[in-house]
Design goal:
This protein is an alpha/beta fold and about 300 residues long. It has 14 helices and ten strands. The chain folds into two domains: about 140 residues, Rossmann fold, CATH 3.40.50; about 100 residues, no CATH class. It starts with a strand and ends in an 8-residue tail after the last helix.
Length: about 300
């Protein structure tokens, strides 16, 4: 691969690129969105055609069809810039290396005068894992050094957790790709029906996936560590998460629900008149108490099966 000290140095190489040399693919990696935007503008000013992955998603919440993309690239008669391949592979890390190696195969299908640029973001470490035995093809990977690296984060949520707000946010995988095709930012929340599938991936970047409210509460809202998911039903945890998203903590949500400033045993006097959710919430709170008969009962119980 070729390493450049700056994005300006890389652009200077692209301008002078010898079109008589074979192997027309160029994987260009940058580590921050400022450089990404600079390169995108460079290709725009040169009149390079952009090929967007979102155009290869059949519906709003599906992954792009890379076979159709490859077929399109094989039939090109001019330069093109493909993006954002890195954002698709970021959530499909197991496919990253074989996909890049597959696109290297385009070097055998296209005339050397054409160039296909894959504009990549934060993939430098992965490119060192790509098998490229032909030394000439290694120069198809261009890395731009940078003095800064974005504080990137991608939060992926199941649609049932839509109450959680952390802007910017997009709905569906196609919109996720379009976000990076137009005006990308280093932090993003994605709501997708694919969250359960993506949860099993071994990500190499700062990507977190939440498919149920308990996981979201535990990692985003510091739910008391003594709580277990088996303590409640999914709809209970969702309602509690909705409350904590507003109030900021379990304690404040509890006090607001019962309209009190601090806990006292008088809350228990009308236990039988409380709705199911309030009884469950009160039982959870009792498990956090450090002393007393009520605490001992709640602490030893694994579900709401006690009477006060």
């Amino acid at each position: 691969m070729m390493v450049f000290d700056s994005v300006d140095e890389l652009i200077n190489f692209l301008v002078k690129d010898n079109r008589k040399i074979p192997f027309p693919t160029r994987f260009i990696n940058v580590e921050n969105l400022s450089d990404f935007t600079t390169l995108k503008k460079f290709f725009e000013e040169r009149g390079t055609e952009f090929i967007f992955l979102s155009d290869f998603c059949s519906i709003d919440d599906t992954f792009p069809n890379l076979r159709r993309l490859r077929s399109r690239l094989k039939n090109l008669t001019h330069d093109a810039c493909v993006l954002p391949l890195s954002e698709y592979l970021r959530v499909q890390p197991g496919q990253a290396v074989p996909t890049i190696e597959n696109f290297f195969g385009l070097n055998n299908d296209l005339p050397c005068a054409h160039r296909i640029y894959f504009l990549m973001y934060r993939f430098e470490n992965l490119f060192y894992s790509v098998e490229c035995p032909d030394i000439r093809k290694k120069n198809c990977v261009l890395l731009a050094k940078s003095s800064s690296r974005d504080d990137f984060s991608l939060t992926i949520l199941a649609p049932t957790l839509r109450f959680y707000r952390e802007l910017p946010e997009v709905d569906g995988f196609k919109s996720y790709l379009k976000f990076f095709e137009s005006a990308p930012e280093s932090k993003l929340t994605l709501f997708t029906d694919n969250a359960d599938f993506l949860r099993e991936q071994n990500f190499f970047d700062n990507v977190k996936v939440f498919v149920d409210a308990f996981d979201l509460l535990r990692q985003k809202f510091s739910l008391p560590k003594d709580f277990q998911s088996t303590f409640g039903r999914d709809d209970d945890w969702i309602k509690l998460a909705q409350m904590i998203a507003v109030d900021g903590s379990f304690e404040r949500a509890f006090y607001r629900e019962f309209a009190i400033d601090k806990f006292n045993v008088h809350v228990l006097e009308n236990f039988g008149e409380l709705n199911d959710f309030q009884q469950w919430l009160l039982w959870l709170h009792c498990k956090l108490m450090n002393v007393g008969y009520v605490y001992r009962c709640a602490k030893k119980s694994k579900s709401l099966r006690l009477k006060f």
